[in-house]
Amino acid sequence: MDITTDGPTLVLHGDFDVRSTFLVRNAIYEQFEGHERDVVLDMADVDTIDLTALRVLAVATLRAAQSGHHLTLRNCRPAVRRMIHLARFAHSVEVERAAATA
User: Fold this and answer.
1) 71-74 and 39-49 as β-strands: parallel, antiparallel, unpaired?
2) What is the CATH number of domain 2-86?
3) Is 59 helix (H, G, I), strand (E, B) or coil?
4) What is the pTM of this model?
5) What InterPro entries is this protein classified in (predicted)?
Protein backbone atom coordinates (compact mmCIF):
# COMPACT_ATOMS: atom_id res chain seq x y z
CA MET A 1 0.00 0.00 0.00
CA ASP A 2 1.30 3.39 -1.00
CA ILE A 3 -0.26 6.63 0.19
CA THR A 4 0.20 10.02 -1.42
CA THR A 5 -1.15 13.26 -0.02
CA ASP A 6 -2.87 15.94 -2.03
CA GLY A 7 -3.96 18.59 0.49
CA PRO A 8 -6.74 17.08 2.62
CA THR A 9 -6.92 14.06 0.29
CA LEU A 10 -5.08 10.82 0.92
CA VAL A 11 -4.71 8.81 -2.28
CA LEU A 12 -4.42 5.08 -1.61
CA HIS A 13 -2.67 2.74 -4.05
CA GLY A 14 -2.79 -1.05 -3.72
CA ASP A 15 -4.62 -3.61 -1.60
CA PHE A 16 -6.18 -2.26 1.57
CA ASP A 17 -6.00 -5.22 3.92
CA VAL A 18 -4.76 -6.26 7.34
CA ARG A 19 -1.14 -5.64 6.26
CA SER A 20 -1.78 -1.98 5.42
CA THR A 21 -4.32 -0.92 8.06
CA PHE A 22 -1.69 0.45 10.46
CA LEU A 23 -0.20 2.65 7.74
CA VAL A 24 -3.58 3.97 6.55
CA ARG A 25 -4.91 4.54 10.06
CA ASN A 26 -1.84 6.56 11.02
CA ALA A 27 -2.06 8.65 7.84
CA ILE A 28 -5.74 9.45 8.51
CA TYR A 29 -5.12 10.42 12.13
CA GLU A 30 -2.13 12.57 11.18
CA GLN A 31 -4.40 14.48 8.79
CA PHE A 32 -6.95 15.03 11.56
CA GLU A 33 -4.30 16.23 14.01
CA GLY A 34 -2.45 18.43 11.56
CA HIS A 35 -5.36 20.15 9.85
CA GLU A 36 -8.62 21.77 10.81
CA ARG A 37 -10.45 20.27 7.85
CA ASP A 38 -12.11 17.20 6.52
CA VAL A 39 -10.21 14.26 5.10
CA VAL A 40 -10.97 12.46 1.84
CA LEU A 41 -9.65 9.00 1.01
CA ASP A 42 -9.34 8.58 -2.74
CA MET A 43 -9.80 4.85 -3.31
CA ALA A 44 -9.59 4.82 -7.13
CA ASP A 45 -6.42 2.69 -7.06
CA VAL A 46 -7.61 0.30 -4.34
CA ASP A 47 -8.40 -3.07 -5.90
CA THR A 48 -9.44 -4.97 -2.79
CA ILE A 49 -10.42 -4.25 0.78
CA ASP A 50 -10.92 -6.62 3.69
CA LEU A 51 -12.98 -6.56 6.86
CA THR A 52 -10.10 -5.33 9.01
CA ALA A 53 -9.62 -2.33 6.73
CA LEU A 54 -13.35 -1.58 6.83
CA ARG A 55 -13.25 -1.62 10.62
CA VAL A 56 -10.37 0.87 10.58
CA LEU A 57 -12.41 3.16 8.32
CA ALA A 58 -15.52 2.84 10.51
CA VAL A 59 -13.57 3.71 13.68
CA ALA A 60 -11.82 6.60 11.91
CA THR A 61 -15.20 7.91 10.71
CA LEU A 62 -16.57 7.78 14.27
CA ARG A 63 -13.45 9.42 15.69
CA ALA A 64 -13.62 12.14 13.04
CA ALA A 65 -17.24 12.91 13.90
CA GLN A 66 -16.45 13.06 17.61
CA SER A 67 -13.67 15.59 17.00
CA GLY A 68 -15.64 17.76 14.56
CA HIS A 69 -13.97 16.41 11.43
CA HIS A 70 -15.33 14.46 8.51
CA LEU A 71 -14.00 11.42 6.63
CA THR A 72 -15.25 10.61 3.12
CA LEU A 73 -14.34 7.78 0.76
CA ARG A 74 -14.07 8.85 -2.88
CA ASN A 75 -13.82 6.92 -6.17
CA CYS A 76 -14.54 3.50 -4.69
CA ARG A 77 -14.38 0.73 -7.27
CA PRO A 78 -17.34 -1.68 -7.55
CA ALA A 79 -15.52 -4.44 -5.63
CA VAL A 80 -14.84 -2.06 -2.74
CA ARG A 81 -18.44 -0.80 -2.72
CA ARG A 82 -19.69 -4.39 -2.80
CA MET A 83 -17.52 -5.33 0.20
CA ILE A 84 -18.77 -2.28 2.13
CA HIS A 85 -22.36 -3.42 1.57
CA LEU A 86 -21.74 -7.14 2.16
CA ALA A 87 -20.00 -6.38 5.45
CA ARG A 88 -22.89 -4.06 6.42
CA PHE A 89 -20.65 -1.02 6.78
CA ALA A 90 -22.72 1.20 4.48
CA HIS A 91 -23.99 3.17 7.49
CA SER A 92 -20.61 3.27 9.23
CA VAL A 93 -18.57 4.96 6.50
CA GLU A 94 -19.42 7.75 4.09
CA VAL A 95 -18.92 6.93 0.44
CA GLU A 96 -19.11 9.88 -1.92
CA ARG A 97 -21.68 9.34 -4.62
CA ALA A 98 -20.31 9.16 -8.13
CA ALA A 99 -21.34 12.00 -10.40
CA ALA A 100 -24.03 11.06 -12.90
CA THR A 101 -22.89 10.88 -16.50
CA ALA A 102 -24.97 11.88 -19.49
Assistant:
1) parallel
2) 3.30.750.24
3) helix
4) 0.88
5) MlaB-like_STAS, STAS_dom, STAS_dom_sf
What is the spatial distance between Cα 59 and Cα 2, in angstroms, rounded to a whole number? 21
* β-strands 2-6, 71-74 pairing: unpaired
Could you give the maximum distance between any two Cα atoms of the chain, in Å? Answer: 40
Report helix, strand or coil for 7.
coil
Of all residues in the chain, what percent carry a pLDDT higher than 70?
Answer: 93
Q: Mean pLDDT, to the nearest integer, of 51-75?
A: 93
- Tell me how far apart the alpha carbons of residues 69 and 39 are, in angstroms, rounded to a whole number: 8
C-alpha Rg value of the chain to the nearest Å: 13
> Rounded distance, CA 48 to CA 42, Å?
14
Alpha-carbon separation of residue 9 from 41, 51, 83 (angstroms): 6, 22, 22
